[in-house]
Structure formats: C-alpha cells, structure tokens
Amino acid sequence: MTLVFAENTNRDTYIDPTTGDQAIVTGAAAVGLLCKSRIEAQRGEMKYAATKGLPAKATAFDTFNPQQFEAAARTIISGTPGVTAIQSFSMYKDGNTLNYSATIITIHGLITITGTAAQ
C-alpha cells in the first residue's frame, strides 16, 4: 500500500485534528503526491542524488524545449511506485512559468496532477 504524509494547500504536512497524529494519505492520492514531489525535485539540488530530478532550468527556461521537458517528466512519473501508465501529459508556458498536467493510471485508479515550474 502506498502511504505518504498528507499536505495542506500550502504544501505543508500537518497534524490530523481527529487523531492528533501526523496526517497521511494512501492509495491514488499518495501516488499523486509522490509524482508531484518527484517532478518538483530539480536536477542537481539533491546532495546525494545530483543526477536525479527534473531538468526544468535547462528544458523550460534557459532554452524552451517542450519535448525534452515532457520526456523527463514522463520518465520521472513512470518511475514512481504505483504508476502503471501515463494516459496524457500537457503543458504550456506563460511568461516565466511553465504549467503542466498529467493524467496517470495507478494501481489504485486514475489520477490527475497539475503543477507549475517557475524560473
């Protein structure tokens, strides 16, 4: 079973007011959070995994290469535990912000994630 800490709208973890414990999510919602977290990790920022993460700076901002950005995002999403396929992936750039959306088939069902990358 996929199990991760829940996040509020500010992307912060929080204490479940009912149980008094760290809030958690399971199933498809947990896989979705894992996918978003993995996409948001920028290549080179992780000390012990410098080659991991999305190369957003190189593919979206230094030179806009949507095919490379999408390929990197699809690779990251596909490597997430619980993901079985990517049904669709789309993105658009608005100034210095790149917005993306992915519909993902997981072992728990279909989910859609959305996010932004900003310079």
What descriptors fit this protein?
globular, 119 residues, single chain, three-stranded antiparallel beta sheet, Nuclear Transport Factor 2, Chain: A, alpha+beta, 3 helices
Topology:
Blueprint: E1 3-5, E2 24-26, H1 27-40, H2 56-62, H3 66-78, E3 83-94, E4 97-106, E5 109-118
Antiparallel strand pairs: 1-2, 3-4, 4-5
Model description:
This protein has a single domain (3-118), classed as Nuclear Transport Factor 2, Chain: A. The chain is α+β, with helices and mostly antiparallel strands and 119 residues long. It is built from three helices and five strands; from the N terminus they run ββαααβββ. A hairpin with a 2-residue loop joins strand 3 (83-94) and strand 4. The strands form two sheets. It has a three-stranded antiparallel beta sheet, with helices on one face. The protein has a two-stranded antiparallel sheet with strand order 1-2. It has helices at 27-40, 56-62, 66-78, and strands spanning 3-5, 24-26, 83-94, 97-106, 109-118.
